[in-house]
Each structure stands twice: as structure tokens, then as C-alpha cells.
Design goal:
Elements lengths: L25 H19 L7 H6 L2 H20 L2 H4 L1 H8 L1 H23 L10 H8 L8 H11 L11 H7 L4 H16 L9 H35 L3 E6 L2 E6 L8 E5 L7 E7 L2 E4 L1 H4 L5 E3 L4 E2 L4 E4 L1 E8 L5 H8 L8 H31 L4 H15 L4 H18 L2 E3 L4 H6 L3 E5 H5 L5 E2 L5 E2 L6 H10 L8 H8 L12 E6 L7 E7 L5 E7 L1 H7 L3 H17 L2 E10 L13 E9 L6 H10 L3 E5 L4 H11 L5 E3 L17 H7 L2 E3 L3 H13 L4 E5 L5 H6 L2 E4 L5 H6 L2 E3 L5 H41 L6 H15 L18 H28 L2 H6 L14 H26 L12 H20 L1 E2 L4 E2 L2 H16 L1 H14 L3 H5 L11 H17 L10 H28 L2 H12 L3 H7 L3
Parallel strand pairs: 11-19, 11-22, 19-21, 20-21, 22-23, 23-24
Antiparallel strand pairs: 1-2, 1-3, 3-9, 4-7, 4-9, 5-6, 5-8, 10-24, 12-18, 13-18, 14-15, 15-16, 16-17, 17-18, 25-26
Helix pairs in contact: 3-6, 9-11, 10-11, 10-15, 11-16, 11-30, 14-15, 14-29, 15-29, 15-30, 16-29, 21-22, 22-24, 29-31, 29-33, 30-33, 30-34, 31-33, 31-36, 33-34, 33-35, 34-35, 39-40
Length: 1066
């Protein structure tokens, strides 16, 4: 029992003093509350724990006596001050001693109730709903703010317990991964295995390795902590909300601050925020498959319990919260089940690259051990130093940090563009997305509907267009409106007209199954009526005279659709039984309203950009096929659209009846009349054809398709269920946000891919280069200088996460074969650069003779002095350091590296690092590291050598791309990308032959005969005639629009469109 706080309901208790003629003021109530808290603190000070019964019985009387003494003392004090405080206050104070017993008992009872709820001693799920309110000490009017605050102290926030990870352990965790293990093994080698050959342990290398590990871990810890804070701030924007009744008003609050006793409103698309019992209203359909495994939605009526985490599939109702946080059904289950770590695709890529680097180092070490000891009989200690060089220099220790930080920074940039990433790895998948299935309403269009009253079609005698609008407005919401409700009610002179003169009995909200809304009401004469609006087919099914009006209804719908207008049907019936549950009399189909949803001003341009980026945008709409085609024509995305029946193979169109459904989906520009289950089927079949598929959605029934898609995108104002199932949540409407996110994702992915190629190249160049120096010339490079190279490289390479890169113009993805091949070839070239440089310095006088620098050539007796070895080490150090870091400029660009300007941060870090490296090579005389300064002459020669041999790196890069992709060299000259998706030019021919065979099989194309030439000629004539006919139809349809008419007149009269636009607005 919590003795440190007063009971949660303390502040709402109405203290009554039946024996007193006066009630104490709020000041005395506050004083009383303070007394109560002091008493609790006194009880809490006991050195033993008191059970609840002991507290409420044995200690209640002593506590009362203490308060009576304090009250009497204050009474005597206030007798002398009664002139100032008033007789009323004084009388109220005196009555405290008389009624305090009653007050304390009431406080104890309320405290007992809350503690019993916390211990779950009361089964709130099964008792009658009236007893629920009694046990929760609340009413259907909700709680007050004071109640909520007190109950939050007792029950805590409505969220699961989060384990707080020690920051120190988190920091050490960055030293516990396979790449760090290799470095830690090198540190052990430096002090254990290197302790031989008459030399002490290699303490400087040991300290250097530890410093390198600490630097990398510190950078990783700081960057990931910052990224985690940024991600937490982003996810806070996606925190679930709940509509809750508090202080007599409905407000939208964070679901985390719900408490037992709160009254909440839940509706279609909501994720139920806490365990609750339903109040009066229509039954709900609840999807609780995530909790109970039930595959089908279950129906819940008033009085039934619903679980936190379930999704509302249909209906709207109020409920009272009975459990929150860890006390919910979901919270208990989550508490009992340990979390499992799933290895994602990104982690698999990291592991594969890390394993490749480790295996490359292992192979190099094995070759060195075999050659140095059994064959060359090298001393023990120099051999260990050479092994340390491979271990320290070959491991890309910064790779996990660079890639993770790059994604975290990219995620933050996406959020600034209006796309919040819930799953980091969705960035790489969006970079490879080649098909986007986009909803029409609100994404391609503005979702700002308007109704043209002049062309409203009336189907019932005695009804005018104004009546149709009024009936549609009555079947609409006046608050929490969607776009259709807002458009309909907005047509009235005063929105209050929608409910004027009637009494609302029951409102049926919209749901994806029925696709309509309905209002049951009583008029001034006491008669009950019902009016409904919704999808024409659904309303037509209600009509008693469907067979008589069906042809005319479809004709009007088609007429509206040809103009790009959606149709909204309205029906009306009388309910003579006078009960809301009654089926009522026959439905009368009274009219059709045309709804116009204009395309967004940027949709056409955005679709054009998407196609240029290799992303095929498919329109998925629930509207009629004609509307979809008209919208597609206006947006330039094509009119090759089909009805949803084609997805099931039920379409009767001869042009597509023989096509496989998979091919139909892949070739189509969109589908109309689509239900949520169709969206799931479209995504599944596109994925089966190896497409990376994105899907947009906003409704609860879109959740399965969003979850199935590679990139589920919840559009702005999506329901909680859609957001929960998605990978990316948009905060801004429109398709342009998605395309901007695609470009940003490709830039992020390009940075990660550039670095992985760089990391593999450096591993190969270190392992191969220093292995050849050690085995051919028996040159022992000091391990400490490899540590310096690694530290400077890590400091520079961290800036790649903010580098300026050009996004790939085509969808891109991880291609490990391309990464490894490119890394091996570039790394091998750099290794040969070092080998050739060493040979030129060590075995020839080319550089002294050409540039006049001091000779580092080995004497004729082939005995290398210590000074010569130190200077050679300095020269090799500078050559390796410069060209290793310069390689990042080659891998970061898809074109010539000197054309694409790097980011200032990367360029600045490179210059600073190489200035330090140059100063070390010129001036350092470190006996512990066995290097000696070589002067500015040699430094200049080494810089010149690296610059000369740097330029072929771009040509090698282009050659690798050509070898892997088969692309011609003219694409390189035209400044196309250097790393593209693998292209198989024979694939299109094979697909064409397969398609022809399929058409022949299904009778669409007859097999070739001896008259094939004449048949081909006839076929060409038929195709030409068909094309002319389609062009004429498009021209005539275009003339029926105002814009088309104006443009045709302009063309015929050869007018200047710019001049006309200055005078008129079309």
C-alpha cells in the first residue's frame, strides 16, 4: 500500500459536515489534505510493513487522536484571530474534530478501492457495467483532471515497462562485435605473443589499439545516442492518441495518460488504447488477431470487454477504461514473453561484408605464417609485427558506426521532408523501390470535394436538388467530418440546417464494408425516418425499384465519370415501427450527387519525375473505372487501367481475358473499384515477380497490404491501424513527399554503398600490399603506424554520413557481388601502387635522379640499416595514408571523381588528416614506432606519385561497371551512373518471345503460316486503323472538356496561348 501519497480520489471528495451549520472553505480542505499526507508519511516511517487491514483498523484511531490535538491547537490559535478570518471559517474549523472520523473512513475506503484495482482483486471484465463504475469510483461523465493526476500516481502511465539500459554497458557494447573482436585479438597479440625474441611486450601497439577501440566506441555511442534521441522525438509525433471525456469535455489526449475510469470514444480505424468495457451503442467489429490469434473480426456489444492493441474494423462507441499499461491483457502477455531479436537484411549485409574482410585477413595471415617461418625462417618478433599490421589495418572497425549513423541522419532528413521512418532499414528498401501503388484520393488528388448542384440527378418525383442535398447532409456528420461530409454540409447556407427540426436517434458511421452512412431521426410530427448516402452500388442495392432505375443510374454514373466526377447516391425510407432497430419501409433512391476532386497541382510533374527515376506509379482507387482513366489521362500516367474483377480473372474484356493475372498487374497503369483485399493481392503478385513494391494507404482495411508491401506508407491523416502497419508515416499530403523521400533514400543508400566498397578496397589493399612487402622484400612495417592510418581514416570517414552525393537515377539495392568485385579490383590496384612505389624507392634511383631527393635505395650489400628502414617506413606510411583516404572520392562518385564535388566536411576532414600525416612523415623521429622524418622533398614526391596514379582509378571503376552491367562506354561519357543495376539485354527478347507464345497459345495471335507476310501486312493495317480510331475518340473526349475546347480553338486559329492566359483564367 502506498503511504507516501493521499488516495487518488482525495481531491474530488466532497467533504460533508452534517453536524455543522457551516462547511469549511477550500483553504481548510487543502489544510486537511496536508494533514492526511503528513499522517501517511508518519505511517510510512514505521520500520515494518503494515498490511492493509492493520492500517485501516489499528492505526486509524491513534491517527485521529493526533489530528484532533492539532485541530484543537489551531482552534485556540484562531480564537484570537477570528476577527480576521471570520466566524464562518472558525466554525468550520471547530467541526473538524466532530466529523474527522467520517472523513478518514471515506478516504480509507476510496484508497482501498484504488489499491484493490491495482492488485486486480476485482474482476472488472465480468461484473455488470454498473458495478464497474462503482468500483472505479467514476461515472459516464468521465473523470476530472485532479482524478486523473491522482490515478496516474497509483497506476502509472498507460505503457509497457521499458528496461533502462546502463549507458556504461551500452558503451561497452560497441566493443563487443566480430570486428571489435579482431582488434581485441590484435591487442592481446601485442602484449602476449609479441613478448619474445629478446624484446619486451609491444605496449605502444597495445595502447594504440585500445585507444582506437575507445575512439570508435565513443563516436558510435555519441552518434547513436543522438540518433536515438532524434528517433524518440520523431516517434513521439506518432504517439497514439485517444478521444477522452474529461472535465465534461471531449479532448484528444495522448493514450499514455489514460487511467482506469476514463471514458473514451473509439471508432473505425482506431487501435484500442487500453482494456475497456463498452457502453451503450451499436456493436463493434474488433480485430484482435494480434492478441488472441483469431483470424476473423469478432463482434462486441455494449457491456463486452475489449483489449488494448485490438483494431476497430467497424462501428463507433464509447467505453470505460478498466486497465492500463502492464495491467492490460496485452501488457501481461508482453511481460511474460521475452523479446526476440530478428536479424534484418541490413544486418545480414553488414555480417557478409564483415566476414569477407575477416576471411581476407585470415587468408593473408595464413600465407604470411607459412612463408615467413617454415620457408624464410624469419625471426619470431618481426613476424608477429607483420601479422599485427594485417589485423589492425585490414579490419573496417568503423563500418557499423558509419552505416548506422548514416541511416539515422538520413531518417532525420526524411522527417524534415514530411516522412517519418518507423523502421530504419526501410530506407534501403525505398531506395530499391521500382513500383509504387498509390491511392488516388488525397494522394494524387486534393481530397477537397465540391458538388455542382446544377447537374444533380433526381430519381424521385416531388424531390428537387435542394432536397437531395439536405437529405445527404442529414446523413453526414456535423463534427469530426471527412472530406465528403464537409463538402455536402458545406453546400447548406447554415450547417445547422442538417439537424433543424429533427431529433437524431441513431447515426450509422461509414465502414469499408457497407460503404455508406445513415441517420435515423424523428421529425416534428413524431414520425421516424431514415436517410442514407454512400457508394451508388450499395445504395442501389437498398432501393425497392432497383430493376427499374438501374440502367438510368449506371448511365448517369458513367456520364459523371467521363467528366472525372465521382457519384454519391442518396436514399430515404420511413420507419413506421418507430424503433431504430426496425428495418423500416421500402428505400427510395432519390438522387445522385456529382463530386469533383481536382488533381493536385504537382501530381503530373511528380509522376513524370517518378517515371524518370524508374518508379512505376500505379493508381489504386475505389472509384469507377472511367474516373480512374480520366484522372490517369490528366496526370499523364496512362489509361491502361482495369476493374478489380480483372484481378480475379472474372473480367469479360476479350483484350485481357487470356493474359495471366500476374502479367496484367505488372503492365497495368492502375485498377479501379478496388477493395482492401485487392490491394493485398496486387502487392503479393508484384512481389512474386521480383518487384520492390511500395503501397500507400490510410484506412484500417489497408493495414494488411501496408504490412505486406516492402515499404508500407501511411499517408497524412491515416488511421492508427494504418500507421501501426506501415514503415513510413507521411506528415504532409501528396505524392511529391513520397518521391522526395525516394530521392533522399537513394542518396542515403548511395553513401552506405560507397563506404562499403571503400571498406572492402582498403582491406584488400592493406592485406595484399603489406603482405607482398613482407614476403618479397622482407620489409617489416611498424604496426603502430598502421594504427595512425586507421585513426586518421576513421576520423575522416565518419563525415561520409553527411557527404553530398547524387542519388542513383534508377532503383538500387545491395549487390554483394558488385561490392566485393569492385573492392577487390580497386584494392588490388592500390596494393600494386604501394608495391611499385617501394620497388622504385628501394631498388632503383629513379626518384633521386629525377627529383633530386636523397636516396633511400638499399646498399649494394643488400643490408638495410636502421635509419634507412625508418625512412622507408615514413615514406610508405605517407604513400599509403594519402591514397587510402583519396580512394573515398572515387567510390563516392558515379562519374569522374574530380567532377562531382564532395561535401565541405568530407573535404576538410581529408585535408586536415593528410596534413597531419604529412607532418608526421616529414618531422617525426619516433624510435618506439621505428620511423624517421624524410623531409619536404620526399613528401612532395610522394604526393605527386599518388596524384599521377590516382587518375586511373576512375577508369578502373568504369571498366568494372562495364564488365558487371554490360553497359556501353557512351553512357559513361554522357555522365551516367558508374554503379547501376545489372542489365540483361537478352531478357527483353526472351520476354517478347514468351509473350508471343502465350498469345499464340490462347488464340490471340495465330501461328505463322506460309502467308505470314500478307498476314503481317494486314495486321499492321488493322493496328494503324485502330490507332486512328483511338486518337479520334481521345480528341472528341477532349473537346467535351472546357480546357480541351479552348486548346482546340487555339490550335485551329493559330492563337498565342501565352497572350490568352494573360487575359483569361480557364
Amino acid at each position: 500500500m502506498n503511504f507516501l501519497h493521499p488516495p487518488a480520489s482525495f481531491c474530488t471528495v466532497q467533504c460533508s459536515f452534517p453536524h455543522s451549520p457551516h462547511a469549511p472553505s477550500r483553504a481548510w480542505t487543502n489544510t486537511l489534505e496536508n494533514f492526511y499526507i503528513c499522517g501517511r508519511l508518519t505511517l510510512a516511517a514505521f520500520p515494518f510493513q503494515l498490511n492493509h487491514h492493520f492500517t485501516s483498523t489499528l492505526l486509524l484511531r491513534p491517527l485521529q487522536l493526533i489530528f484532533e490535538v492539532i485541530s484543537l491547537f489551531l482552534s485556540l490559535l484562531f480564537i484570537h484571530l477570528h476577527v480576521f478570518i471570520g466566524n464562518c471559517e472558525f466554525a468550520g474549523l471547530l467541526c473538524l474534530t466532530e466529523d474527522f472520523d467520517v472523513f478518514l473512513v471515506e478516504m480509507a475506503e476510496k484508497d482501498d478501492a484504488m489499491e484493490a484495482l491495482k492488485r486486480e482483486a476485482v474482476d472488472l471484465e465480468n461484473i455488470p457495467i454498473e458495478e464497474v463504475f462503482e468500483n472505479l469510483r467514476c461515472t459516464k461523465e468521465g473523470l476530472s483532471t485532479e482524478d486523473v493526476n491522482r490515478r496516474l500516481e497509483i497506476f502509472g502511465q498507460n505503457k509497457l515497462e521499458e528496461k533502462e539500459e546502463s549507458k556504461f554497458l551500452k558503451f561497452l557494447g560497441f566493443m563487443w562485435n566480430p570486428l571489435s573482436w579482431v582488434m581485441e585479438a590484435a591487442a592481446i597479440m601485442a602484449i602476449a605473443l609479441a613478448n619474445g625474441g629478446g624484446k619486451p611486450p609491444d605496449w605502444q601497439d597495445f595502447v594504440g589499439i585500445i585507444v582506437l577501440l575507445v575512439i570508435n566506441s565513443t563516436i558510435s555511442f555519441v552518434e547513436e545516442n543522438n540518433a536515438g534521441n532524434a528517433a524518440a522525438a520523431l516517434m513521439a509525433r506518432l504517439a497514439p492518441k485517444a478521444k477522452v471525456l474529461r472535465d465534461g469535455r471531449w479532448n484528444e489526449e495522448d493514450a499514455a495518460i489514460l487511467v482506469p475510469g476514463d471514458v473514451v470514444s473509439i471508432k473505425l480505424g482506431d487501435i484500442i488504447p487500453a482494456d475497456a468495457r463498452l457502453l451503450d451503442g451499436d456493436p463493434l467489429k474488433i480485430d484482435q488477431s494480434a492478441l488472441t490469434g483469431e483470424s476473423l473480426p469478432v463482434t462486441k456489444g455494449p457491456g463486452d470487454g475489449v483489449y488494448s492493441g485490438s483494431t476497430v474494423k467497424q462501428g463507433e462507441i464509447e467505453a470505460v477504461v478498466i486497465a492500463t499499461g502492464v495491467h492490460t491483457f496485452f501488457g501481461k502477455a508482453a511481460h511474460l514473453v521475452d523479446s526476440t531479436n530478428q536479424v534484418g537484411h541490413f544486418q545480414k549485409v553488414l555480417t557478409a561484408i564483415g566476414n569477407f574482410c575477416i576471411c581476407s585477413i585470415a587468408v593473408g595471415m595464413i600465407i604470411e605464417i607459412i612463408v615467413m617461418y617454415p620457408i624464410q625462417h624469419r625471426p619470431y618478433r618481426p613476424g608477429i609485427d607483420n601479422l599485427l599490421v594485417l589485423l589492425i589495418g585490414g579490419i573496417p572497425i568503423a563500418m557499423p558506426t558509419v552505416l548506422s549513423v548514416t541511416m539515422a541522419i538520413g531518417s532525420h532528413r526524411l522527417s524534415q521532408q514530411g516522412a517519418i521512418t518507423k523502421r530504419m532499414t526501410a530506407i534501403e528498401e525505398m531506395a530499391g523501390m521500382d513500383v509504387l501503388c498509390s491511392d488516388k484520393t488525397g494522394t494524387l488528388t486534393l481530397n477537397k470535394l465540391s458538388v455542382d448542384k446544377n447537374i444533380i440527378e433526381v430519381f424521385t418525383k416531388g424531390v428537387d436538388p435542394d432536397t437531395v442535398v439536405l437529405m445527404a447532409a442529414r446523413a453526414s456528420r456535423l463534427e469530426n467530418q471527412d472530406a465528403i461530409d464537409a463538402a455536402i454540409v458545406g453546400m447548406l447556407a447554415d450547417p445547422k440546417e442538417a439537424r433543424a427540426g429533427i431529433q437524431e436517434v441513431h447515426f450509422l458511421p461509414f465502414n469499408p464494408t457497407d460503404k455508406r452512412t445513415a441517420l435515423t431521426y424523428i421529425d416534428n410530427e413524431g414520425k421516424m425516418h431514415r436517410v442514407s448516402k454512400g457508394a451508388p452500388e450499395q445504395i442501389l442495392n437498398l432501393a425497392y425499384n432497383r430493376s427499374e432505375i438501374e440502367r438510368r443510374v449506371h448511365s448517369v454514373i458513367d456520364k459523371f465519370a467521363e467528366r472525372g466526377l465521382r457519384s454519391l447516391a442518396v436514399a430515404y425510407q420511413e420507419v413506421p415501427e418507430g424503433r431504430k432497430e426496425s428495418p423500416g419501409g421500402p428505400w427510395k433512391f432519390i438522387g445522385l450527387l456529382p463530386l469533383f476532386d481536382p488533381p493536385r497541382h504537382d501530381s503530373a510533374e511528380t509522376i513524370r519525375r517518378a517515371l524518370n527515376l524508374g518508379v512505376n506509379v500505379k493508381m489504386i482507387t475505389g472509384d469507377q473505372l472511367a474516373i480512374g482513366k480520366e484522372t490517369g489521362r490528366r496526370l499523364g500516367m496512362g489509361t491502361n487501367m482495369y476493374p478489380s474483377s480483372a484481378l480475379l480473372g472474372n473480367d469479360k474484356d476479350e483484350s485481357i481475358i487470356a493474359l495471366p493475372v500476374d502479367e496484367l498487374i505488372e503492365k497495368a497503369d492502375g485498377f479501379a473499384g478496388v477493395f482492401p483485399e485487392h490491394k493485398y493481392e496486387i502487392v503479393k503478385r508484384l512481389q512474386a515477380r521480383k518487384h520492390i513494391c511500395g503501397m500507400t494507404g490510410d484506412g484500417v482495411n489497408d493495414a494488411p497490404a501496408l504490412k505486406k508491401a516492402d515499404i508500407g506508407i501511411a499517408v497524412a491523416d491515416a488511421t492508427d491501424a494504418a500507421r501501426s502497419a506501415s514503415d513510413i508515416v507521411l506528415t504532409e499530403p501528396g505524392l511529391s513527399v513520397i518521391i522526395s523521400a525516394v530521392l533522399t533514400s537513394r542518396a542515403i543508400f548511395q553513401r552506405m554503398k560507397n563506404y562499403t566498397i571503400y571498406a572492402v578496397s582498403i582491406t584488400i589493399r592493406i592485406v595484399l600490399g603489406f603482405m607482398l612487402l613482407a614476403l618479397i622484400w622482407k620489409f617489416d612495417f611498424p604496426p603502430f603506424m598502421v594504427l595512425i592510418i586507421a585513426i586518421l581514416n576513421d576520423g575522416t570517414i565518419m563525415t561520409i554520413s553527411k557527404d553530398r552525393v547524387k542519388p542513383s537515377p534508377l532503383p538500387d539495392s545491395w549487390k554483394l557481388a558488385e561490392i566485393f568485385t569492385t573492392g577487390i579490383v580497386l584494392g588490388g590496384y592500390l596494393a600494386m601502387m604501394t608495391v611499385i612505389f617501394f620497388w622504385a624507392v628501394y631498388d632503383t634511383d629513379f626518384f633521386p635522379r629525377t627529383f633530386g631527393v636523397s636516396s633511400l635505395e638499399i646498399p649494394a650489400d643488400r643490408i638495410m640499416s636502421l635509419d634507412l628502414k625508418k625512412k622507408l617506413a615514413s615514406a610508405i606510411y605517407l604513400q599509403v595514408s594519402i591514397v587510402s583516404q583519396a580512394l573515398i572520392f572515387v567510390t563516392r562518385s558515379r562519374n569522374w571523381s574530380f567532377i562531382e564535388r564532395p561535401g565541405l566536411l568530407l573535404m576538410g576532414a581529408f585535408l586536415i588528416a593528410q596534413l597531419i600525416a604529412t607532418l608526421i612523415a616529414v618531422y617525426a623521429n619516433w624510435n618506439f614506432a621505428e620511423i624517421e622524418g624524410i623531409g619536404w622533398g620526399w613528401a612532395g614526391v610522394i604526393w605527386l606519385y599518388n596524384i599521377v596514379f590516382y587518375f586511373p582509378l576512375d577508369l578502373i571503376k568504369f571498366f568494372i561497371r562495364y564488365a558487371l552491367s554490360g553497359r556501353a562506354w557512351d553512357l559513361v561519357i554522357e555522365q551516367r551512373i558508374a554503379f547501376t543495376r545489372k542489365k540483361d539485354f537478352g531478357k527483353e527478347d526472351r520476354e517478347l518471345k514468351w509473350a508471343q507464345a502465350q498469345r499464340t497459345l490462347h488464340g490471340l495471335h495465330p501461328p505463322q503460316t506460309e502467308f505470314s507476310e500478307r498476314s503481317n501486312h494486314t495486321e499492321l493495317n488493322r493496328i494503324a486503323e485502330e490507332a486512328k480510331r483511338r486518337a479520334e475518340m481521345a480528341r472528341l473526349r477532349e473537346l467535351h472538356t472546357l480546357k480541351g475546347h479552348v486548346e482546340s480553338v487555339i490550335k485551329m486559329k493559330n492563337l498565342d496561348i501565352d497572350t490568352i492566359q494573360q487575359s483569361y483564367t480557364v
